[in-house]
Design goal:
Elements lengths: L20 H8 L3 H8 L3 E6 L2 E14 L31 E6 L3 E7 L7 E12 L1 H7 L13 H8 L15 E4 L8 E4 L16 E4 L17
Antiparallel strand pairs: 1-2, 1-6, 2-5, 2-8, 3-4, 4-5, 7-8
This protein binds a DNA duplex (13 and 13 nucleotides) through β3, β4 and α4.
Length: 227
DNA sequence: GATTTGATTGACT
DNA sequence: GTCAATCAAATCC
């Protein structure tokens, strides 16, 4: 049925032992739908003035651009072209695209695809693997360690990422990104969370998560617009 | 210049 | 399950 073929199968497997820096940048320069599953299990670290927090990624979503991909992505911030906000998505792979939403939340993406094309993966959830005490201080409302980064805004808050970090390189200080030594074995995929319109349907099954992981956020459909 | 909306979360019934 | 919070960016007129 779908006009949009479900892509989503990783074309390449990671070599055992992970990928060194330059190879990582190259790996991230692929289509976000290929990159996303490979980033499951990866660890993103941010060392700020107040300390270090590391998150092991357990859930993410791929977003594409209007013209660089085979099919336009109506769920993407770049669907209607480049703006001041989404500019980093058109930049080099490995950099951050951070946006502010609902008047209070920050969400972080890692830019994918070659420089000049719009593509990124939204970091939706993770497990705190270092700096849990600092993460707790940043997220005092969390009732359980599993809640510290279980959601895109929660993850960004736990890592101390804001729009000031948008456009910065996630592969260089004060950030660090490490791929898992072994690719994730049990990956699930499905429609993206909170995306209204066609981009949130099964025609765009570009949400990926580690099957059964307790830190994965609960699925929530986009709020339906009243007629 | 005015209005709408949102890649969400947390509190509450 | 429902809903308010809160404001920048995008969209509308």
């Amino acid at each position: 049925m779908g006009l949009i073929p479900p892509v989503a199968v990783p074309a390449a497997r990671l070599p055992a032992g992970g990928v060194p820096g330059p190879g990582l940048r190259e790996l991230l320069s692929a289509d976000a739908r290929q990159v996303a599953p490979q980033l499951l299990g990866a660890v993103l670290t941010h060392e700020g003035r107040d300390g270090l927090v590391s998150v092991r990624i357990t859930e993410l979503e791929a977003y594409l651009g209007p013209h660089d991909s085979l099919h336009p992505d109506p769920g993407s911030h770049t669907f209607r072209g480049a703006t001041a906000r989404n500019a980093p998505m058109f930049g080099p792979a490995g950099h951050l695209y951070v946006y502010f939403t609902y008047g209070m939340h920050h969400c972080a993406n890692i830019v994918c695809g070659p420089d000049g094309t719009a593509s990124a993966v939204l970091l939706r959830a993770g497990e705190i693997v270092a700096g849990e005490e600092l993460a707790r201080r940043r997220r005092p409302t969390s009732k359980s360690p599993k809640d510290l980064a279980s959601g895109p805004a929660r993850l960004a808050t736990a890592l101390g990422i804001t729009t000031a970090d948008s456009g910065r390189d996630a592969l260089g200080s004060p950030f660090r990104l490490e791929l898992p030594a072994e690719p994730a074995l049990d990956i699930s995929s499905g429609p993206r969370v909170g995306v209204s319109g066609a981009g949130g349907t099964h025609d765009y099954p570009w949400r990926f998560w580690l099957s059964g992981d307790p830190t994965v956020s609960r699925y929530k459909a986009a709020k339906a617009r009243p007629a």
